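Write out the 3D structure for:
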Amino acid sequence: MAEPYKLFYWAEIQGRGEFVRLALEEAGADYVDVARREGGTDLLMAALEVEEYPSFAPPFLKAGELTIGQVANILLYLGEQHGLAPRTDPGRLWVHQLQLTIADLVTEVHDSHHPIASSLYYEDQKPEALRRAADFVETRIPKFLGYFARLLSNPEPRPYLTGERLTYADLSLFQVIEGLRYAYPNTMKQIETEYPVLGQLRDRVAARPNIAAYLASERRIPFNQNGIFRHYPELDQ
């Protein structure tokens, strides 16, 4: 590209923007994390209003003349541009399908601590969150991660979800595992004992040179209590 990508997402959290950051970092792509620069939040808010194809909410990516919103949509584009997805239509759509499944899981992660409304504080919906998180821990995390573990194991063990080559879905699954380890450490210890391939994938992705450099840099925002993955000990029983 003649000019760097411009990623528009909130400056203080990993959130959904982190799935895009990981793909850009793995690709070694030149990009600007707009809101993390001086005056960037104002630019982000203005872009939501004036773009020809405005996004409902961040993240969205400017790639030359294109403006692309929604994580799975952005990654569909980046996967094709940077070799992070298969070139065949069946393979490309399969990785997109995996990303949409990850998006479903990410929504459930958020709703486990904010089951009533995003506009309310956690403390305003704590009884409901306790009920929602109990089901999330007992049934939903095992169902989702069991599915991905099966993909990594059958018909035989493989390094990545689609085989020998990494795709953006592997980067996103890495982020989910990292986030769940932060938010639900007790639950994840049990699940990763049952499905060791998940931890192996996480370690394999973390060791990739571009990702390792990113994780060790200031560009990687730490997990915190404002993002999607939040650690409330009472929810991790």
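The mean pLDDT is 96.
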